[in-house]
Design a protein that fits this description.
The protein is built from 7 helices and 9 strands. It is α+β, with helices and mostly antiparallel strands and 289 residues long. The strands form 3 sheets. The chain has a 4-stranded mixed sheet with strand order 7-6-5-8. The longest helix has 10 residues, at 79-88. It is globular and about 55 Å long.
Length: 289
């Protein structure tokens, strides 16, 4: 209550007070921060996560990680949302947006020979309300920074997907192909689906959509062994190495890929028809207006 009072008085200590609130799991703090959730995002409160599983070697050991509060995009970034970035930020010349990732921009332009996401001009994949696909990891990082957000860490993504009770899927412990975009469905789409197509039944405990199926999602973290340690260098955006992908995709024939604890990875330059991302935001958010 004292921290909220500091914020309400617009004190010089307001930023520190908000930061302190994100580390509180008290109901009053959670209620206050939840009310500040930006549009099209969900609030994930501070607290402990049971991370990993005993189902795959790279998900072991099952361990507990404590996280402060954060915000996460309700759905993956769509073509319509990415279009504003693409119209403003050129792939063809250096700019402030590509700061620290100029080598990646040159790779995209000169090696991949493209000036937009890989399937940007393909009518089968560029529907405005469907997730943007064909983006490599640096593109996702640069878009997120441009939007005033960031990519979620691997642990943030997993908590937002499965909650705190260790469930296997966003909706519970049993796989249900009617709750996500999967080739295992009775009548599979075999393509991306519009954001929220399986909501609310397929949503995570915090209301995040499409966290199982539809597309693989880049996260910030390097692919490194568990237990997860945020301070061991895996969250260094400039470090070399493979980055983690989460969530499964519309064409995944393995039910295992749709589990919330499943870890996939690839080189940062990888871009494909089933790969996109969503953004996170630190509290307090400083969104692009």
């Amino acid at each position: 209550a004292q921290l909220i009072g500091v914020i309400g008085r617009n004190s010089p200590l307001k930023a520190q007070a908000v930061s302190a609130l994100t580390r509180c799991d008290w109901p009053l703090a959670i209620s206050f921060l939840s009310a500040l959730t930006p549009p099209d995002m969900v609030f994930v409160p501070a607290g402990e996560l049971l991370m990993g599983s005993d189902e795959a070697p790279d998900e072991q050991p099952l361990h507990r990680v404590w996280l402060p509060s954060f915000y996460l995009d309700r759905a993956p970034v769509t073509n319509a949302q990415f279009a504003a970035f693409w119209e403003e930020v050129s792939y063809e010349e250096p700019s402030a947006a590509w700061e620290e990732f100029e080598d990646a921009r040159q790779y995209i332009r000169l090696t991949d020979m493209r000036r937009a996401p890989l399937y940007w001009f393909d009518k089968d994949w560029n529907h405005p309300q469907r997730p943007v696909v064909g983006v490599c990891w640096p593109e996702a990082v640069v878009f997120a920074r441009w939007a005033g957000k960031r990519l979620p860490s691997e642990v943030e993504w997993e908590k937002a997907a499965r909650g705190i009770d260790g469930r296997r899927y966003p909706w519970g412990n049993a796989f249900d192909p009617s709750l996500c975009n999967t080739v295992l469905a009775e009548y599979p789409l075999k393509s991306t689906s519009s954001a929220g197509s399986y909501s609310p039944r397929g949503d995570s405990p915090y209301g995040a959509q499409d966290m199982s199926g539809n597309i693989w999602e880049w996260v910030a973290s390097l692919y490194q062994p568990y237990p997860y340690e945020s301070e061991d260098g895996r969250e260094d955006l400039l470090a070399p190495g493979a980055r983690v992908l989460r969530g499964g995709a519309f064409g995944s024939y393995f039910e295992d890929h749709y589990r919330s604890a499943h870890r996939h990875h690839n080189i940062p330059q990888f871009a494909y028809i089933n790969t996109g991302f969503r953004c996170a935001a630190t509290v307090p958010p400083h969104m692009r207006t």
